[in-house]
Amino acid sequence: MVLAIDMGNTNIVIGCIDDDKVYFEERLATDLKKTELEYVVLIKTVLELYGIDSSQISGAIISSVVPQLVNIIREAVEKLIDITPMVVGPGVKTGLNIHMDEPRRVGSDLIVDAVAAIKEYGAPVMIIDMGTATTISIVDDKGSYAGGVILPGIRVSVDALASRTAQLPRISLEAPGHVIGKNTLDCMKSGVVYGNASCIDGMIDRMADEIGIPLASKENPHGIKVVATGGLSRVIVPECRHDIIVDHALLLKGLKIIYDKNVE
């Protein structure tokens, strides 16, 4: 069993996974003020919640877009399970060809997502990750990372809207009953949920057109499949008009694949 940790700007995704299944996937708040010991306690608590003893864990791997936390989490894992975790970055084999201007600057979370999507769903594939930022990446029919887009995250947009306007409140993220709202809250919810769903639908079409590969369908099963992950995919994807696969454990699966590639 491998302990897999992905550090994002808002949440730290943590889970245990082996060749057969994902045992759990949980989120901790990303907090730069927390010490190594505090993260030890948090991770230990999550493991105990799922009845997992540290002796059951044979390896660990970390990906991160928060450089300031890498050493803290690495040391926390070492202290907790007496294993030095692998860190996704330069020198770590991923098996992914990256066709970008600066391949080394591509976020490790995007690479991990792409590796998992290729293994789970095949190429070509488009990956939507809804976190602090919403990213849409595309892997071409040769299995190479072809690029993507970065959009303001949904919660970032909502927080900015509430903080920069005098009369608009903070809202919960849920789809209202109608696109056309009849009160301020429903108008905001519609804009956030249906607006983001429409944005994603539109970007999927534009990216598929630009790469010159049609989207997968019953008539064309070899086209581009679309996979979504991230906490807010639960809210937005059901309102999209495209056929999108939701895989909340995509990051954990990718981390396990990369871990296996580097311990063979």
TrEMBL record:
Binding site for ATP: D6, M7, G8, N9, T10, N11, I12, V13, T132
EC code: 2.7.1.33
Residue sites binding K(+) per the record: D129
Catalytic activity: (R)-pantothenate + ATP = (R)-4'-phosphopantothenate + ADP + H(+)
Pathway, per record: Cofactor biosynthesis; coenzyme A biosynthesis; CoA from (R)-pantothenate: step 1/5
PANTHER family membership: TYPE III PANTOTHENATE KINASE
NCBIfam families, per the entry: baf, PRK13321.1
Quaternary organization: Homodimer.
Family affiliation: Belongs to the type III pantothenate kinase family.
Full protein name: Type III pantothenate kinase
UniProt organism field: Lachnospira hominis
